[in-house]
Amino acid sequence: MAKVKTKWVCQNCGYETPKYIGKCPDCGSWGTLVEETDVKTTVSQSVVIDNSPVCLINEIKITESIKLSTGFEEFDRVLGGGLVQGSLVLLAGDPGIGKSTLILQTAGNICNTGKKLLYICAEESGSQVKLRAERLNVNSNNLYVYSQTNLEAVKAQTEIIKPEILVIDSVQSIYTSEITSSSGSVSQIRECTNALMDIAKNKNITVIVIGHVTKDGNIAGPKVLEHMVDTVIYFEGDKYKTQRLLRSIKNRFGSTNEIGVFNMVENGLEEVSNPSELFLKDRKESAAPGSVIIAANEGTRALLVEVQALVGTTSYPSPRRVSTGIEYNRLLQIIAVLEKRIGMNLSKHDVYVNIIGGIEIDEPAADLGIALAIATCFRDVVVQSDCVIIGEISLSGEIRNVSDLEKRIYEAQKLGFKRAIVPKFNKKLPDNIEIEVVQVPRLTDAIVACVSKAVK
Predict the structure, then answer these.
(1) CATH top-level class of 6-41
(2) The whole model's pTM is what?
(3) pLDDT (tens digit, 9 = 90+) per residue, 45-79?
(4) How far, in Å, CA of 92 to CA of 247, rounded?
(5) Number of neighbouring beta carbons within 10 Å of residue 230
(6) CATH number among 1.10.510.10, 3.40.50.1110, 3.20.20.70, 3.30.230.10, domain 278-455
(7) CATH (one of 3.30.565.10, 3.40.50.300, 3.90.550.10, 3.30.70.2190) for 67-273
(8) How far from 377 is each of 184, 304, 309, 338, CA to CA, in Å?
(9) Quick check: 176 and 25 in contact, CB under 8 A?
(10) DSSP 8-state assignment for residue 452
C-alpha cells in the first residue's frame, strides 16, 4: 500500500510546508499549521479550457448586469444597487451579530417577488431555521431549506430545484468529498469556494455565502477567499447596542465607500433611512463641554455624528491618549497642532475622544470637530447644540476645504441645525441654504467663533 503523503497548512494564510513548524514564516502566526493529506490534482480535475476566440477590446459588447433588489434599500446601497445575477457575495461578521437574520429576511423579501431561493443551513437544522423564520415573519412557497454540509449533495439539489439565489450558511461548515481534510480547513474552504464560483458563473445563479471571522476581526480561512468572490461585506455592530452596520470592503459592481445602517428589534432587523437621526437621538439640547457635532461623508450620503472629548489632568509622566471611532495617529496629530498653534499645554493631561454610535470616522473632514471638542473641554466652554463643525486641519493650523461641503450643510439644515462652521472658500453657496454659515481660515478663528457664539 502506498504511503499517504501529508503536508502542513497554515489555517490563517494558506502557507504549505512538508514538516511542522511552530511559527508560519508567511504571516507570522503561531500554532496555526494543521496536517492535511496532500492530494495531487489529476487531469480530470483540471479546469476545462475555454476555446472562445481572442477579440479586440473595441469589439467587446457590454451586457447590462441584471440587479435584483434585496428588499432593503440599505442593503442595496452597499451592494451597488442590488444583487448582480451570477455573482458570488461573501457576508462576514462576528458570532451572534445577526448575519443569518439579515440573510433570512432578505430571502423572504426576494421570494415574495416570485424568485426561487435555496437556503443551505450547514450549521442548523431545518426546524431551527423555521423557528427563526416564524419570528421574522418570513413565509414563502419559493423558499427552500436544505440542512446539508456535503457540497456534492448541494450541487445535486441545485440541479433539481434550479433556484435564482443560493445561500450557504456558512462556507466554513461545508465540505467536499474530494478533499480529505476536515471542514473549515484552508483546503476545504478554497475548493468549496471554487465550486460555488463555478455554480455562480456557469449556472448564472447568485450565490451568497456567510463567513465567520477570527478573534482579530478577519475573515476565517485563507486570504485568497476574499480575492475569489465578487463582493465582500462586513456586518458590524456592538452586542450591547442595537445598531448594525453593513460595510463593503470589496465590490466589483459598485462603490466600497457605502454603508448600510440597521436597527436590531424584536422582530428582526429594521433599516434606518436617516442614520443621522439615529446617532443623534440621545443628544440633549444643552450640550456639555467637549461635545460637538460633525458632518462626515459615507459614500453618497452625509452623516451627522457626535464627537465627545474628555481632557483631565494626570499624575503619570506619560499622559494617556485614547481614541474610539477615529484613527489613533490622527488624534496625536490634532493634539500636536493644538499644542503648537494654539498654545494648549496638553502634555500633563489625558485625552479621550469617542465617536458616539459605534461608527468609524476615517476622513479628514472630522479634524476640526475633534480639535474643537478637545479645546472646549480643556477650556471648559460649550459649543451650541445647534452648531455643526466641518473642516480639515493642516499642520500649520489652516482649515482646508473638504469635498461635498454643500451636501453636508444640507444634511445639517434638514435636521434643524442653525449654524455651521466651515472652511473659508470662494464659492457662493446656493440661495436655498437657510442656516448661518461661518467661514474660518485658521484653527484659531474657529475656536474664537465657536466660543464667542456660545458665550453670547
Answers:
(1) mainly beta
(2) 0.79
(3) 434 445 667 889 888 877 666 889 999 999 999 99
(4) 10
(5) 19
(6) 3.30.230.10
(7) 3.40.50.300
(8) 50, 20, 7, 13
(9) no
(10) H
